[in-house]
Description:
- The chain has two domains: about 70 residues, no CATH class; about 120 residues, Alpha-Beta Complex (Aspartate Aminotransferase, domain 1), CATH 3.90.1150.10.
- The chain contains eight helices and six strands.
- Strand 3 and strand 4 form a beta hairpin.
- The strands form two sheets. The chain has a four-stranded antiparallel sheet, with helices on one face. Strands 1-2 form a two-stranded antiparallel ribbon.
- The model has no long low-confidence stretch (mean pLDDT about 90).
Amino acid sequence: xxxxxxxxxxxxxxxxxxxxxxxxxxxxxxxxxxxxxxxxxxxxxxxxxxxxxxxxxxxxxxxxxxxxxxxxxxxxxxxxxxxxxxxxxxxxxxxxxxxxxxxxxxxxxxxxxxxxxxxxxxxxxxxxxxxxxxxxxxxxxxxxxxxxxxxxxxxxxxxxxxxxxxxxxxxxxxxxxxxxxxxxxxxxxxxxxxxxxxxxxxxxxxxxxxxxxxxxxxxxx
Length: 221
C-alpha cells in the first residue's frame, strides 16, 4: 500500500494464474503501522500441487499450536481499515514518505562515496557505500572523551566496516542509523527511516549524515 513517486504495484493474484504461491503481508507496511509485528499469508493454488498443499497444512497446524502475542493488532485491523478516515490517513502518510524520500535522495545522490537508492515504496531508505571506500582506519571526531573511548573500544576488534561507521556517527552526532550488512546483505551501507514528522529536522539530519560520510571516508586520506 505504500507506493509513490509515480510507481505502481501489481497484485500477485492478478498474474499468478494456477501457480502455487504464498504472499506474505504485514500491517507494518500495509497500514502502515511501523514496527508492528503482526502479519498474515495469502495462499494461492494450494490444491494444484500435493507437496505444496502439505507444506501449507503443516504451517497452519503449527500456527494453531502457538500462543499469539499480537491479539491487539489483529482485533484492530478490521476497525482501522473500515474507518471512514483510513483512506485519507493512508494518503497523507504516503505523501509524506514521498516528500522525505525525495529530500533524502536529492542530498545523498551528490555524496561521492555512496550510491543512493530513491525509495519508491517504503518508509525507509538504503544508502550503499561504493566499493573499497571504507577501511578500519577511518574515524570521526567525538568531543566527549567517555563516549570516544567507548566507541573506540567497540570498533577495536573485528567488525563490519559499515557498522564501524554507524558507531562513529552515533558517537559524533547522536544520529542513529542501521548498518546495511545487518540485513543479510554483503553490501556495506546504512538504512534510515522516513518517519520524522518535522521535515526541516529530517533535512537537517540527512545533511548531517551526508557531511559525516564525507568526513569519515576522507579521514584516512
